Amino acid sequence: MENLIQDIEILGEGRIPTEEVKTTADYNSGNKRKLYIESYGCQMNFSDSEIVASILHKEGFDTTSDIAQADLIFLNTCSIREKAEQTVRNRLNHINGLKKKKPEMMVGVLGCMAERLKTKLLEEEKIVDLIAGPDAYRDLPQLISQVDEGSKAVNTFLSREETYADISPVRLNSNGVTAFISIMRGCDNMCSFCVVPFTRGRERSRDPHSIVTEARQLFEQGYREVTLLGQNVDSYKWSEEENNKARLEKIEAGGVVNFANLLERVAQIHPNLRVRFSTSHPKDITDDVLLAMAKHENICKNIHLPVQSGSSRILELMNRGYTREWYLDRVKSIRAILGDECGITSDMIAGFCTETDEEHQQTISLMEQVQYDFSFMFFYSERPGTLAAKKYTDDIPLEIKKKRLDEIIKKQTELSTLRNQKDLNKIHKVLIEGPSRRSEDFLQGRNSANKVVIFPKGTKKKGEYTNVVVESCSPATLFGRIID
Ligand code: SAH
Ligand code: SF4
Ligand code: F3S
Q: What is the pLDDT of residue 405?
C-alpha cells in the first residue's frame, strides 16, 4: 500500500487532481504562534496554502510540521468527490482528540469544503472555530482575532477580482527546484458533474506582469521549473484596457494577453527555466499554444488534456463542450505539431449517469487511440448542487462503476507501459529534483514529458540538468544512467 501511495504521489505531482495530502514544512523565524496546514485536493489548494502561510507569517505565525505543536490547525479542503470530504471529516474527528488535550488550539477549515458548506459546517463539526472560502484568505487575520475573542468566524464571500497577485507565497514542502504559480482562479465552465464553479467562483486571470515577476524571482532563487496553474489555462485572458493597467508593452494583438502569449513570456525568462502548465481544456486549447510549445525547448512537452469520457453522448450530458471527434482532432494537432514524444495525459470518469456498457467501451477505445502516458481515473461521485445532481439520476450501481473503473485502470497501466517502452534506449534531458525516494545513491528527476526518471547519482546534484539514457521501465517510472 505504501508503495502504491508513493507511486501515486510521484505521478501526482505537477498535475492537478489527486487525493494526496500535503502538510506544512517547518518555517521558523522566531514568531510565537505556530500554524499547521494540511492541504487536500488539487495543486490549486497546495498553492493557496502557500499564500495563507505568507499572509499569516506577517501576522506572527510560523509554520510547523508537527500538529501537536500547533496553536492553529488549518485543513485546506477539497469537495471534488464525496470521498474527499469524508477524509476531511475523519481528520476533524482525529483532531478533536488532540484538542481535548490542548483546548486553546484553534481549528479552521479552508478551501472548497468551507465554501460549499459554509456555516453548515460549524453546525455539523463542533470542533471547527473558523471557516474561510478560497477568496477570503486576506481576511484570515481578522477572522483569527474574532476567534481569539471567543466567537466563531466565517467568511465565504467569493470575489470576481481576487487573484492574490501581490502576495509572495511562502514555499512549503519545496524541493527548491520546482514550483507552482497560480495564473488564474475559478472556472466559468459548467461541467455538469463538477463542484468547482460553486466552490471557486467565477474565472479570473492574474496580471501577467506579476506572474512573470514571480517566475523570474523563483529562477533567481535557484528554481528551475515552474508549473502554471489554472482549471482551464487555455481561457487565460488579460486585457490591459479592462484592467486599466498599462504595465506591459502592448505587443500582443489588441493589448490582450492570451495563454500562448503568457507561456512565451515565461519561457523567455531563461532557457534553463522549464515551464509546465495544467490543466488544458480540449474545447479551448489552440494551435497557438502548441506552436509556442514547439518554438521553445524549455516549454515541456506534456499536455494534461482530460477527456472524461470517450462517448459523445456522455460528453454532451457532462456539458464538456466537445465531442469524441473534436477531441481526437485536437490530439491529431498535438501529434502533428509536437510529434509522438509529447506526453498526453488525461482524467477519466467511469459510470456517469446513464452510461451504457457500450459507451464505457468507447472510453476504452479512445484511450487506445490516444495512447495516454498517464491518467487520473475516478468513478462518478454525485455532488450536491451540480447540474448533474439536479437534472440526472445517479443510476449506475456502485459495483458497475467500480468494474468499469477497474477496466479503465487496467487499460491505462497497459498503455503507460507501452508508452514507457518507447522511451527505452533513448536519451532524455532530465531536471534533477533530488535523491530518489528509495535510495540516497540514486537521483530522481523528470524528462520533458513529465515522466519520473531514476538513475545512479554520479557527481550530479539537484537543480542540474543531465542527459540520461533509459534502460528499463515500470508503468510509472523510467530507470537509466547518466551519459554526459
Ligand atoms: N479543470 C479540470 C478538472 C478539475 S477537477 C478539467 O476540466 O479537466 C479534476 C478531475 O476530477 C476532473 O477532470 C474529473 O475527472 C474529476 N471529477 C470532477 N468531478 C467529479 C465527480 N463528481 N466525480 C468523479 N470525478 C470527478
Ligand atoms: Fe470543473 Fe469543468 Fe471547470 Fe474543470 S472545466 S473545473 S471539470 S467545471
Ligand atoms: Fe481543487 Fe478539490 Fe477544490 S480539486 S478546486 S480542491 S474541489
A: 98
